[in-house]
Each structure stands twice: as structure tokens, then as C-alpha cells.
């Protein structure tokens, strides 16, 4: 069995940034495993621009953004294996992976899971009707168009206003397809506002809020979809139903962290994020297994993925280098009903007072609120926001002084306060 | 060329009869109107090998069910398809159900089904802790089983093919006539076939095929059953098949594991005029899931990965027809083969094949090989087997479908077999690529490439399920 000190599973934006930061922190025995035939992950098919505004202060395309990190990995001569699929991770940090050379069995001192997320399929939204060709997730369509040069259809309806769906509305329009509607079951979009403006409004593509696709028609290939308004409980009001002729239905109905490997290693998974429950080192419930990027929770911008992964890389190296494994008392971060989740969910009682970042998403659109953190009963952070929405991830950066208060607190809360 | 036997339909009945007949020296051809075997009712049913306690004693359903169910273990050994004897409960939710359970137990005894008993709700929950507290007692049938019906039909077809049987697809039979002692069979695409015996195994359309030539008319009513399927993550929900006490409309909603560790919930029962309409309905899916909750209150709605529906071939006499037509010599009819048709299929096939062989005075095929090896799945291999497989063929190390862990070698094997996969759904049914939680999100473009390469097609010719179902409409602008 091969031994490596740091094994990184997934060579997308999270894995690349984690590898670079671990190297820069002094670790030299790193291996990245990537199942595709090149590094970069899903960024390779995101050929639109808008990436890197935070990290590089310029607008890059997905492949350009990935290349910046790939270059850093190559400069540092960090080893990686392509076309290599991990099939099993155990909680003793042994890993099995497959490629055309055979079965790889690896024992690692620490593992960073950076395997990203996948799209929710049609089945998850329980849409009735036929099961024809022409129903694809937006990401599948994106791969067909951008990588394979194939056009999935000519008359398109998009269900869900997630970012990939919005981006594909524009992309399909560029390629001569007619995007007839984007349909969103919620009264608000789950995508970035800038994408609604740039991808729909600029092309006069109608966006129906509080509507859903209730039936797909066509035996062999999609012929039309039936759309209806939904009530507050998201049940369709059939009397409002109308039909749109189309040959393609793209689904952009949410992303799910891909945690099958983590589950196999008995990592505790959050019911809300569907990613691992991690402490402020980004370590999961299994000693020495870390998570970062979209496998941990779905980010809105890749820049934040890179930041989180950088942190995971550093913490993993600290973990590998610490001779004695210390057990710390844990404080679970509480949220109110409005804050849907916060990462990390666990704060350790130790004397590391370095700055710390909370990432969170809210469950609804809230206006004129304050985003606050309290340690015991003291408010240690408060920031006014005109609006927060589920489509945008919020970050809270806490300084040394606030972190110190948190580490000695009995209870920590992250919540929204209405501004009177 | 004149065939000894022409079989119309390649569902579980058509393929099983083809395989049984290939034990004899005969020219056999199977025609199907779809692009592949097993595209009708066989691909969309509960996949239950019923023990045989449900059918009315003395009926053909009871006779063939009990005998058929007993043949599965041996067939699995020969043909290597997924089958498991997992046992079943018929759950009763009130004391009123006691008499019906006793009646089922009595039927079981009359039909000759072993291993049935009535047990208390607590005993049920001891075995299956997720079963509802409202269950007061249940019939326990230890010999009930689960099978992957389409994989079983594929195995039958491959073994029949290996023993000389021919398969042709996209052959929709539109005319059936008899000239002297030979049948003339015409299909929509203009082909004509000549055969001594025609086997009508056309499922929901078996009435139409019979009525093309016979004066002894039949009428099949389609009865739609809708299902939802849960992710493997929830396989812990039950290892045993959970029926609810039967009603007039069928066996009620079941919650069952599949051979591939998903949880299947359904079917509903709705009479339909359009026998090809397998569209799911909003109400049907809701009903299936809601009734499933009665058996297992913790069924997670968020665990659903897909939905489907199938059409039962219900015939008004409410029993199987398995016999030579009374007025058309040489036409062998299999009509009204609804549940427990799958469980009965091995017994039906051996009975039918024997009658046909006697009629044609066929001699045994000395070269018949009963063994069919399934596709080697890397997800089933031990570390040592994996190492050997990859050394032998490196493509076993190239994972294409990550949800179900399916390699490129398996997909190529599925396409190269006879009758092989020709489209995405054909690949999916044979190797499970695309059956998992992402439902082909990631592997669609890769499987398209492999299909294109193997079948010498361009990417824009690849279909989901045959003609009219192309995945893409062409290339993007240059």
C-alpha cells in the first residue's frame, strides 16, 4: 500500500487551491486524484466570464481561472493522477482508487475531500409526464455545448433559476436556440442577481416566479411542457396551467454536495447542507479527514471556494505536523430559523485566536436586517444588510478579538435581527 | 427464409420462450417494435417474484406462479441475473384484516406455497424496524423474491441468441395472415417474414395481434401503475418486500428493496385507454408515495431519484391465456400475462415451448449451452478481482458512471453483446450507467461517445431509446 502524507480527492478549484496552500505551508508529500482527463473540474466547461473578481481582481473565464491554479500546482511540481476515480475512503484514511493502470491502495495521514457537487435530477422534483429525450440538467447541456460542440435542442424551457440554468439560457440563445421561459418555483431566484440581468433581461427571456413545470409531454423527444403557478405551499394551482411547445427542458433545480465517499468513511453529514459537519479547522467528524469547496456546502462564487480550500490546505498541514492529537471541547454554533446553515458548525475551545470566517445562507429573502453573531449574550459582530437572499452566500469575517470571545463562550449564535 | 417459430415481443415472456425453444433444433426469430428487448411492461413493474399465495387456487395464475417462482434459483445460476429471495410481508393495519390474512394463508396452502405464516405487528417490526406502528399483523411469505426484470429478459435474450435465435428490432407487426400452412408476417417498415408457428407474446398488444387473424377476439385493458424510486442511501428502509392487504384494484402499494438496493414504492392502479401511455401523473405519484407512507412512515420524499410507470396487460377473464389458438392453427397465444406474470414466466415458457416443440415435432438441440455469463461489474468485484480485470483490460479501470461505479469496459461489453445495447437506455438497463442518483447527468456525454465509436455513428445520431429520441439536434454554430 502506497503512503502519502496529504491526499487530495478532486482536482477542481477546491483541490487545486488546497494543494497549493498545503505546499506553501511546507508540505511536500501531496497527491491529487482527479477522475477527469484534466485538472480544473467543472470550471473547464464554464467558458463564460465573471470568475476571479475577488481573487485576481479581474474577470476571467472558468478555464482561465482554473489555469491560474493549475499553473501554481505545476510550478510546485505537486503530483497528480488524472483519469483516476476514488471508489472508497475508509475512516482509517485508507483509500482505493481505479485507473487504467490498476487498483491503487493508498494510506494517507490526512485527506482533503474536494470532490464538488452534482445537480439534482428530474426525479428529485417529482415532475409528472413522459420520459423522453430532451430533458437534461443544465450542467449536462453545458458540457454538450461547450465541450462537445453539440446543441441539445432548439426550443428550450428552463426549470429553476440556479446560476447554471441562467448561464445556459444565454449560452443556448447565442447558439441560435430559442429560450422560451425560465420557470422558478420560489418567489425569488436561487441564482446571482447579476446573472438574471445579464443572461435573461438582456435577451428578453421571460422569468416566471412561483411557477413550476407540472408535466412533460412527448413520447420519444420532449414536445411541450405544462407550467402552472404554485401556492404558498408550492403545490401547483392546476387552473393556472398553460402549455409551452419546446423540444428541450433544462433543469437547474439545485446542487447537492457529492458526499458518497464521505458517507463511506462514516463522516457525519449535515441534513441541511448535505455536506460534512466540520469544525473551524474544516475537519469532519473523522479525525484527519477535511472538506472544502462545494462538497462541503454549495458556494455561489468560485473565489470563496478557493479561499476556503486554502484554509483547508493549511489546517491539514497543521494537523499532519502536530505530533500529539488533542481533543478539544466543542461548541455547536446555533442558528435561528432564518439562517439556514452556517459553516463551520463547530467551534473548538482552544487558544488559536486567528481570524475566522463563517459562511452562511439564509432560507428566504429578508430586507433591512442585521446579520449578527453573539457569544453567550454579547453581540460580537453586527452588520446591516439591505437585503439577503438564498441565492447569495454571506460571509462573516471575525477578527482575533472576536474569535477569542467565541472560544471561551458557552453558546454561539448566528442570526438575523430585524431593523426597526 | 421460413422460420420454424416467429415470436412477436421481446419482453420477459417472449425472451423466455425464445430461450426455451433454443433447446430444440429450430430456426427462431424474435421481432420487437421497439429498439431493444424489454421495453414494455417488463422494464417497468415491481420486479417481485411472488411466492404464489395471492392467486386464486385452481387458476392458471396460481399454477404457473408457484411453479415459476421455484425455477428462479436454478435459472439465476445458469443465466447470471440479479435475483434474491428476500421474503415478503402482507401488512394488515386493523384487526378487521385478520380474516383476509387467514384467507391468504389458506390460499398459500391450497396453492402449495411453503414458508407462509401469520405473525404479529411487533414481530414484523423486530425484522423490519421501519414498518409502521399501525401494522397489527401480517402474512409472512419467506419464499417471496425480487428480480431485476429487464436484466432477466436481457439474460434470456442473450442466451437464446448464443444458441442461434435471431432478434430484429423496430419491427412493428401490422399484418398477420396464413397461406396454406405458413404464416406471413408484415411489419410497418415493409419487411415480410414467413413462419410455421407464430408466438404472440406482445404483452399489452397481444389482443391486437391475435385479433389480426383470429375470430376468437380478446380485449386487453391497460392498467397503469406508477412508481417512485429512492436512492440507495435509503436501502436500510426495508430488506423485505412490504405489501398491503390486497384490494379489488390489485395488490395495493408496495415498498420493496430492488436487487440494486434502491427502494421502490408503488404501483398505483388506473385503467387507461392508451396502452402505450407510460406517462406519470401528478396525482398518481402523489398517491404512490402517500400510500407508501402507511407502511413506512419515515419514507423520505427527498430521497426520490426517479419516477416511472408501467402498463399491466389486464384481460377481462382475469386469468392467463397460454395456448394454441382454437381457430388459427399454429398461433400460440400468451394473453393477459399481468401480475404474477414475471414470477410465472419460467413456467409459462417451459410449458409453451414444450407444446410448440410437440406441435412442430422438434428434436433437441445437442449444442444447447444453458450458461450465460453476465457483464462483469466492477462494483461487485473484490480488490483482487479488480486488479486482475484491469490487467486484462485497462478499460475496467476507467470509471464512466460514478454514481453506480460503471467502467468503460462494461459499457463496451453491453454494446458488443447480442442482442446488444444501441442507445442510452439500453446501456442503462444492462450496466446501470445512469441509474444512480445523478440520473445520467455526468455520464450522458461520455456514453454517447462510446456508443458512437462502437456503432460507428456520429454523436448527433445517438438516441435515448431509438428512432425519434435523439439526444442532440446537431452541432453548435461554427
What is the straight-line distance between the termini of chain A? Answer: 63 Å
Oligomer: heterodimer
**Poorly predicted parts of chain B:** none
Greatest interface and its residue counts?
A-B, 52 and 59 residues
Rg from Cα of chain B: 22 Å
Mean pLDDT of chain A: 95
What's the Cα radius of gyration of chain A?
Answer: 22 Å
Shape of chain B: globular
Distance between the termini of chain B: 49 Å
Largest sheet of chain B: 8 strands, mixed
Instruction: Determine the structural class of chain B based on helices, strands and strand pairing.
Output: alpha+beta
Helix-strand category of chain A: alpha/beta
Number of helices of chain B: 13
Helix content of chain B: 25-40%
3D architecture notes:
- The complex is a heterodimer of chains A (420) and B (478).
- With 420 residues, chain A is an alpha/beta fold.
- Chain A has helices spanning 13-24, 62-75, 138-146, 163-174, 193-200, 260-264, 302-321, 400-407, and strands spanning 2-9, 30-33, 49-51, 60-61, 80-81, 85-89, 94-99, 102-113, 117-119, 128-129, 135-137, 150-151, 155-159, 178-183, 207-208, 211-217, 224-229, 242-245, 248-251, 255-257, 289-291, 330-335, 339-343, 346-348, 356-362, 366-375, 378-388, 394-398, 412-418.
- In chain A, strands 1, 2, 5, 6, 7, 8 and 21 form a 7-stranded mixed sheet that branches. In chain A, strands 11-19-13-14-15 form a 5-stranded parallel sheet.
- The mean pLDDT of chain A is 95.
- Chain B is built from 13 helices and 23 strands.
- In chain B, strands 1, 2, 9, 10, 11, 12, 19 and 20 form an 8-stranded mixed sheet that branches. In chain B, strands 13, 15, 16, 17 and 18 form a 5-stranded antiparallel sheet that branches. Chain B has a 4-stranded mixed sheet with strand order 6-7-5-14.
- Chain B is globular.
- Strand 12 of chain A pairs antiparallel with strand 23 (474-475) of chain B, so a sheet runs across the interface.
Amino acid at each position: 500500500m502506497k503512503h502519502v502524507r496529504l491526499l487530495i480527492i478532486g482536482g477542481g478549484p477546491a483541490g487545486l487551491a488546497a494543494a497549493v496552500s498545503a505546499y506553501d505551508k511546507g508540505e511536500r508529500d501531496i497527491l491529487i486524484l482527479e477522475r477527469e482527463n484534466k485538472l480544473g473540474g467543472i470550471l473547464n466547461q464554464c467558458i463564460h466570464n465573471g470568475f476571479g473578481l475577488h481573487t485576481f481582481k479581474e474577470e476571467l473565464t472558468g478555464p482561465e481561472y482554473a489555469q491560474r491554479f493549475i499553473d501554481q500546482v505545476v510550478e510546485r511540481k505537486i503530483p497528480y493522477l488524472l483519469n483516476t476515480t476514488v471508489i472508497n475512503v475508509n475512516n482509517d484514511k485508507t483509500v482505493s482508487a481505479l485507473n487504467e493502470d490498476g487498483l491503487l491502495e493508498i494510506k494517507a495521514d490526512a485527506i482533503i475531500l474536494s470532490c464538488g457537487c452534482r445537480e439534482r435530477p428530474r426525479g428529485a422534483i417529482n415532475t409528472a409526464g413522459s420520459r423522453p429525450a430532451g430533458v437534461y440538467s443544465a450542467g449536462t447541456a453545458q458540457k454538450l455545448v461547450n465541450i462537445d460542440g453539440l446543441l441539445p435542442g432548439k426550443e428550450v424551457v428552463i426549470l429553476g433559476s440556479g446560476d447554471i440554468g441562467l448561464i445556459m439560457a444565454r449560452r443556448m440563445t447565442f447558439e441560435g436556440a430559442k429560450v422560451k421561459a425560465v420557470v422558478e418555483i420560489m418567489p425569488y431566484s436561487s441564482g446571482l442577481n447579476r446573472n438574471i440581468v445579464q443572461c435573461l433581461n438582456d435577451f428578453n427571456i421571460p422569468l416566471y416566479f412561483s411557477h413550476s413545470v407540472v408535466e412533460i409531454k412527448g413520447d420519444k423527444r420532449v414536445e411541450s411542457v405544462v407550467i402552472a403557478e404554485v401556492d404558498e405551499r408550492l403545490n401547483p394551482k392546476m387552473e393556472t396551467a398553460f402549455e409551452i411547445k419546446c423540444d428541450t427542458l433544462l433543469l437547474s433545480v439545485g446542487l447537492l454536495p457529492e458526499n458518497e465517499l464521505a458517507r463511506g468513511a462514516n463522516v457525519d453529514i449535515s441534513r441541511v447542507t448535505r455536506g460534512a459537519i466540520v469544525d473551524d479547522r474544516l475537519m469532519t467528524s473523522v479525525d484527519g479527514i477535511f472538506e472544502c469547496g462545494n462538497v462541503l456546502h454549495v458556494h455561489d462564487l468560485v473565489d470563496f471556494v478557493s479561499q476556503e480550500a486554502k484554509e483547508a490546505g493549511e489546517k491539514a498541514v497543521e494537523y499532519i505536523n502536530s505530533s500529539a492529537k488533542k481533543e478539544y471541547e466543542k461548541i455547536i454554533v446555533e442558528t435561528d430559523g432564518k439562517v439556514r446553515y452556517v459553516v463551520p458548525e463547530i467551534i473548538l475551545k482552544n487558544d488559536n485566536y486567528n481570524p475566522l470566517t463563517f459562511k452562511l445562507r439564509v432560507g428566504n429573502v429578508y430586507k433591512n436586517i442585521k446579520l449578527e453573531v453573539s457569544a453567550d449574550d454579547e453581540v460580537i459582530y453586527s452588520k446591516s444588510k439591505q437585503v439577503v437572499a438564498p441565492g447569495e452566500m454571506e460571509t462573516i469575517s471575525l477578527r482575533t478579538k472576536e474569535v477569542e470571545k467565541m472560544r471561551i463562550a458557552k453558546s454561539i449564535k448566528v442570526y438575523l435581527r430585524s431593523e426597526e | 427464409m421460413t422460420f420454424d417459430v416467429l415470436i412477436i415481443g421481446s419482453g420477459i415472456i417472449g425472451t423466455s420462450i425464445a430461450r426455451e425453444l433454443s433447446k430444440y433444433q429450430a430456426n427462431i426469430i424474435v421481432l420487437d417494435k421497439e429498439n431493444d428487448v424489454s421495453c414494455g411492461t417488463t422494464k417497468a413493474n415491481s420486479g417481485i417474484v411472488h411466492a404464489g399465495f395471492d392467486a386464486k387456487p385452481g387458476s392458471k395464475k396460481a399454477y404457473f406462479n408457484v411453479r415459476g417462482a421455484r425455477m428462479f434459483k436454478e435459472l439465476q445460476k445458469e443465466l447470471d441475473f440479479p435475483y434474491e429471495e428476500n421474503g415478503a410481508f402482507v401488512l394488515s393495519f386493523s384487526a378487521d384484516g385478520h380474516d383476509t390474512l387467514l384467507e391468504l394463508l389458506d390460499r398459500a396452502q391450497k396453492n402449495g406455497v411453503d414458508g407462509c405464516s401469520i405473525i404479529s405487528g411487533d414481530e414484523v417490526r423486530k425484522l423490519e424496524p421501519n414498518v409502521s406502528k399501525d401494522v397489527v399483523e401480517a402474512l409472512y411469505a419467506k419464499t417471496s423474491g425480487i428480480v431485476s426484470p429487464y436484466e432477466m429478459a436481457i439474460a434470456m435474450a442473450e442466451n437464446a441468441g448464443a444458441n442461434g435465435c435471431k432478434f430484429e428490432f423496430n419491427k412493428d407487426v401490422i399484418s398477420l395472415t396464413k397461406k396454406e400452412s405458413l404464416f406471413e408476417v408484415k411489419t410497418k417498415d415493409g419487411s415480410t417474414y414467413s413462419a410455421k408457428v407464430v408466438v404472440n407474446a406482445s404483452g399489452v398488444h397481444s389482443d391486437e395481434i391475435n385479433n389480426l387473424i383470429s375470430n376468437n377476439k380478446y380485449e386487453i385493458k391497460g392498467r397503469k401503475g406508477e412508481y417512485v424510486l429512492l436512492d440507495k442511501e435509503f436501502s436500510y428502509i426495508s430488506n423485505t418486500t412490504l405489501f398491503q392487504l390486497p384490494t379489488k384494484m390489485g395488490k395495493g402499494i408496495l415498498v420493496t428493496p430492488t436487487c440494486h438496493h434502491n427502494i421502490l414504492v408503488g404501483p398505483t392502479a388506473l385503467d387507461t385507454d392508451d396502452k402505450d401511455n407510460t406517462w406519470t401523473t401528478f396525482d398518481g405519484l402523489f398517491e404512490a408515495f402517500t400510500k407508501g407512507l402507511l407502511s413506512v412512515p419515515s419514507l423520505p420524499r427527498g430521497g426520490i431519484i426517479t419516477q416511472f410507470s408501467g402498463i399491466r396487460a389486464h384481460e377481462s377473464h382475469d386469468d392467463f391465456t397460454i395456448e394454441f389458438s382454437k381457430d388459427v392453427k399454429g398461433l400460440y397465444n400468451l394473453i393477459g400475462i399481468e401480475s404474477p406474470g414475471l414470477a410465472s414466466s419460467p413456467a409459462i415458457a417451459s410449458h409453451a415451448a414444450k407444446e410448440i416443440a410437440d406441435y412442430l415435432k422438434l428434436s433437441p438441440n445437442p449444442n444447447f449451452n444453458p450458461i450465460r455469463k453476465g457483464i462483469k461489474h466492477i462494483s461487485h468485484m473484490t480488490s483482487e478481482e479488480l486488479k486482475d480485470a484491469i490487467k486484462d483490460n485497462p478499460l475496467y479501470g476507467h470509471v464512466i458512471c460514478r454514481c453506480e461505479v460503471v467502467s468503460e469496459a462494461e459499457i463496451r461489453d453491453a454494446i458488443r453483446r447480442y442482442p446488444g445495447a444501441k442507445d442510452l437506455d439500453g446501456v442503462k438497463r444492462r450496466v446501470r450507467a445512469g441509474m444512480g442518483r445523478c440520473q445520467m447527468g455526468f455520464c450522458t456525454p461520455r456514453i454517447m461517445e462510446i456508443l458512437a465509436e462502437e456503432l460507428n455513428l456520429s454523436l448527433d445520431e445517438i438516441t435515448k431509446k431509438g428512432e425519434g429520441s435523439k439526444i442532440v439536434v446537431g452541432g453548435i454554430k461554427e
